[in-house]
Write a structure and sequence with these properties.
It is a single chain. It contains 14 helices and 7 strands. The protein is an alpha/beta fold. The longest helix has 15 residues, at about 235-250. The structure holds S-adenosylmethionine (SAM).
Length: about 325
């Protein structure tokens, strides 16, 4: 057995394809419960309920939670969350959708303001360690990577459709991949024969120069998989669209927490939180404020909260997690 997985990195040894994926170990769990407990939390919106790890702890430890809305775009994850959390009865409501549409889900459920919002980004252990979903370069599977199988484009579709320049941009911008142009050309040249995750991992390993491989601490395919997954699922785009809407729906004193595993996503949360925490943006030469902008958020901490050493020792995949939290004014 391996350590339970979380987040975007895929650097650990994984279970063989046929094995049952291990339970997902929620990251920064005590910190999330602590933040929720310090503010109002009658109505909670969990934008990425996944396998329900955070949900279970919050529902167990905070009996004042009357309504817990769990959203996930992955129908299989949601099914598992529903089964795991069934004993909480109608305290739990679930919806399969992307979290930029959470507000529509809340409207459908007749729920107004929410008091605690959790966004725990990335993939779950279940997704990562189920070979047929195509997220892991260590497990053979189709080049899929869709969190919602109803979405139109798989990773294979993207590789076939994009030209080498667009592929290079995708690898660079979404995965900070070294030698993006070279790898993009190799992917483009082999686009019709690439069928599986292991085909792709092999191709990337072969096309990565030896001097780069010697320097890398991770498998050369790690960032390529991350970049493709980000594009297939439009991960940063959804986060960017969702955060302002989620902040708007927070009740005064309510808290919002974003846990990310990717610097691009952490930068988005940081920028949007800081923007919302900033008041007047008039040039300093203006004698009085002309813009009327008022802060809508207070930051819990200017720096991201990281997992403790014991947490990283127990769950190595938590090590890239960064948590940002803010309070609605
Ligand atoms: C890291 S897991 C969440 C784990 C969960 N907190 C737990 O403790 O079990 C991330 C989950 O977010 C879901 N997800 C990722 N992007 C999403 C999006 N834009 N909308 C809805 N769900 C999303 C994934 O399908 C996955 O199940």
């Amino acid at each position: 057995m391996v350590r339970p997985a979380c987040g975007s990195c895929q650097e650990q040894e994984l279970t063989p394809a046929a094995a049952v994926p291990p339970a997902h170990e929620p990251v920064l769990l005590d910190e999330v419960v602590d933040l929720a407990s310090r503010g109002p939390h009658r109505v909670v919106l969990d934008c990425t309920v996944g396998l329900g790890g955070h949900a279970q702890a919050l529902l167990e430890r905070l009996p004042d939670i009357e309504t817990y809305v769990g959203i996930d775009r992955d129908p299989e994850a949601l099914e598992q969350a529903r089964a795991r959390l069934s004993r909480f009865g109608d305290r739990l409501r679930t919806r399969q959708t992307t979290f930029d549409r959470s507000i529509d889900a809340l409207d459908e459920l007749g729920i107004g303001a929410v008091q605690f919002v959790l966004v725990d980004l990335g993939v779950s252990s279940f997704q990562l360690e189920t070979g047929r979903r195509g997220f892991s370069f260590r497990l053979q599977g189709p080049l899929d990577m869709r969190m919602d199988p109803r979405d139109p484009d798989t990773a294979a579709d993207l590789i076939r459709r994009l030209g080498p320049d667009d592929l290079a941009r995708l690898l660079r911008d979404r995965g900070e991949v070294e030698c993006a142009e070279r790898l993009a050309r190799a992917l483009h040249d082999q686009r019709l024969t690439l069928r599986t995750t292991t085909d792709l991992a092999r191709l990337v390993a072969e096309a990565t120069p030896a001097r780069v491989k010697a320097r890398l601490k991770i498998h050369p395919a790690t960032k390529v998989f991350m970049a493709l997954r980000s594009a297939v699922n439009q991960e940063p785009e959804i986060l960017e669209r969702a955060l302002p809407r989620l902040i708007d729906r927070l009740a005064p004193g309510g808290r919002i927490v974003v846990i990310s595993f990717h610097s691009l996503e952490d930068r988005i949360a940081k920028r949007i939180f800081r923007g919302a925490a900033t008041g007047c943006v008039c040039p300093p030469v203006f004698p009085v404020c002309n813009c009327g902008k008022r802060p809508t958020l207070g930051l819990v901490d200017r720096r991201p909260i990281k997992p403790s050493d014991p947490e990283v020792a127990g769950n190595p995949r938590s090590r890239s997690a960064r948590m940002r939290a803010a309070i609605r004014l």
